[in-house]
Amino acid sequence: MTLDVPTLAVVAGTVSVMQSVAFVVVWSLNRQIPGIGRWTMCSMLSAAILLLVSSRLWLDLPLLTQLLPTLLNWTAAAFFYAGAAAFQGRRASLKWPLLACIPLLIGYVWFGLIDPDLRLRPLFYTPGVVIFLGLGARELFTERRPGLRFATAMSGYATALYCLSLVYRALTLSVFGAPAALLANVPSQTILFVSSLLWVLGWTFTAMLLVNQRQSFEKQQAHRAQMAAAEELTRTEIALAMTERELVAERAQRQQQSLLRDLHDGVGGVTANLVLLASLGRGEENSPERKELLRHIEQLAIEGNREVRLLMDVLQKGSVEWSPFLQELREHAKKLTAAQRIALDWQVVGKLPPEPLADVAAQLSLMRALKEAIHNLTRHSQARHARIRVSFRPRWVAVRIEDDGIGIHPAAPAQGGGRGMANMRRRSEELGGRLTVRSGPGCRLRFTIPLPIRFASIAKKPPICELASSATTSGSWAI
Predict the structure, then answer these.
(1) Sign of the torsion angle spanned by Cα atoms 24, 27, 29, 31
(2) Cis check: omega of the bond before 452, within 30 degrees of 0
(3) Which of 157, 223, 337, 424 is the most exposed, having the fewest neighbouring CB atoms within 10 Å of its CB?
(4) Any alpha helices (H) in 176-287, and if so which ranges?
(5) Of 253, 252, 250, 257, nearest to 470 (Cα)?
(6) Is-above-0.70 flag for pTM?
(7) Shortest CA distance to 257 belongs to which of 82, 461, 453?
(8) Is residue 432 classed as helix, strand or coil in its secondary structure?
(9) Where in the chain is the domain with CATH 3.30.565.10?
(10) Cα–Cα distance for residue pair 12/1, rounded to 1 Å
(11) How far, CA to CA in Å, does 424 sit from each of 239, 370, 448?
(12) What sign results for the dihedral spanned by CA atoms 168, 169, 172, 173?
């Protein structure tokens, strides 16, 4: 039984049109797959080529039925190669293949239109197609990913068989002198259209299989990436939990150090003075001096009780508004200055911040620093007038405490003794601010603290043993 070549041409053209429709549908649904768009163009051009070739049964226009199909065939083969390279994640190198097609096109035009020789024309047509299809098959054979190797190998072998059929036809026509008409019923032309039909069907099947396998491969990769991300998230959570425990431990140590400083500046100073006065009182008989010592002991006991209640109130209430905070500080300053017959000028300038002092450690540290400064003023300044000015600005608050007393002796910082000034300076730094001191005549201390007030640790921390041992020296002038 002899296959009718014109019928094969029509069947191949019809199948090729159906293939192009299938590729368009697949491309519209899977545009994220690299190379599928170029393969769709290849299938559409192949369908147009076979339709133009089949039209030779009714038309005799060499430019339309001979030259144009040849150019479209080379273009379709180039799209096939570009799609295969893109599918493998590479860029197609088209420069040298296109340059090689220039002399082939010249020879094809010469022997097809100017000096018609049907036997030699396939020798110029076939190499261009074989070059591009062979490069595409080579790209497919380089696939190494599991699940994709079978389909790419099938597509590569189908392309290679189609190229062999083209080479066989060219050699048969040029060497053995077989009839050269494209639609002639000879074995070479039959093999050409049968191989074309098989390549269209085989490439369509393998291309659909590649799309499906590529989607499965990408899903597996996404699942592995999700598992890796979950493991990394677990490791991160474990690391964060460890860091959080370390921060909690550091915060507990910092709070312990802050509590030691508060005990030193508050209750520690009161109890140290009580011990000193009690030891002096043992040597006194009934005399005005003894009564005076007892009066001081009573005042210190009351002060110690106030310090303990202050600690309890701060820990219990948490946040406090600025108004009661300043009222507490003013009453404390008025009481101490009145006892020493020092005239006090109290001023508050600016608008109070709307947010309260929410940080317990910050408000306690600020109150301690300011009370320490007022204690130093009343104990050692020998002043007659004092001024406390609290100035509020949008981003900071400044507290200036000044007097007209004897000032600070230059040798005082080198005498050791108490650590009141060092503690005031450190408390200012822990609140993010600074303390400036000027002396002569009188003394002026200025605390500048940013708003909102928060407690933050600083680089250098005094040893706990040093803070604890310093509690017995808080009664001396600590500057």
Answers:
(1) negative
(2) yes
(3) 223
(4) 187-263, 269-281
(5) 257
(6) no
(7) 461
(8) coil
(9) 319-479
(10) 19
(11) 37, 8, 12
(12) negative
- Helix (H, G, I), strand (E, B), or coil: what is residue 146? coil
Q: Yes or no: say if 427 and 445 are a contact pair by the CB < 8 Å rule.
A: no
**CA distances from residue 361 to 117, 252, 322 in whole angstroms, order as listed:** 102, 12, 15
Amino acid identity of residue 443, one-letter, is: C
Instruction: Fill in the amino acid letter for 305.
Output: N
Lateral strand order in the sheet of 434-439: 343-349, 385-392, 396-403, 443-450, 434-439
Convert 53-94 into a string of H (helix), E (strand) and C (coil): HHHHHCCCCHHHHHHHHHHHHHHHHHHHHHHHHHHCCCCCCC
For residue 396, give the 3-state DSSP assignment. Answer: strand
Q: Which two tokens stand for residue 288?
A: 């005005």
For the chain, 479 residues long, the average pLDDT of each consecutive 10-residue run is 70 84 87 88 87 76 77 90 90 87 84 69 86 91 83 87 86 69 69 80 82 78 84 87 80 63 59 58 60 66 64 64 88 87 92 84 84 86 91 92 82 48 86 88 91 69 39 32
The DSSP bridge pattern shows strands 396-403 and 434-439 to be unpaired
The class (CATH top level) of 5-234 is mainly alpha
Which segments of the chain belong to CATH 1.20.1070? 5-234
- C-alpha closest to that of 203 among 410, 40, 432: 40
C-alpha dist (Å) from residue 356 to 262, 319, 325, 331, 362: 21, 6, 10, 20, 11
Q: Which helix (H) or strand (E) holds 391?
A: strand 385-392
Give me the phi and psi of 3, to 5 degrees please: -75, 135
Task: Single out the residue of 22, 455, 34, 457 nearest to residue 253, CA to CA.
Answer: 457
Superfamily of domain 319-479: Histidine kinase-like ATPase, C-terminal domain (3.30.565.10)
| Amino acid at the residue 252 | A
Q: Which two tokens stand for residue 367?
A: 């109150």
How many CB atoms are located within 10 Å of the residue 126 CB? 23
Query: What's the pLDDT score for residue 475?
Result: 35
Buried-state track 60-99, b at ≥16 Cβ within 10 A, e below 16: eeeeebbbebbebbbbbbbbbbbbbbbbbeeebeeeebee
Structure-token pair, residue 152? 């790419």
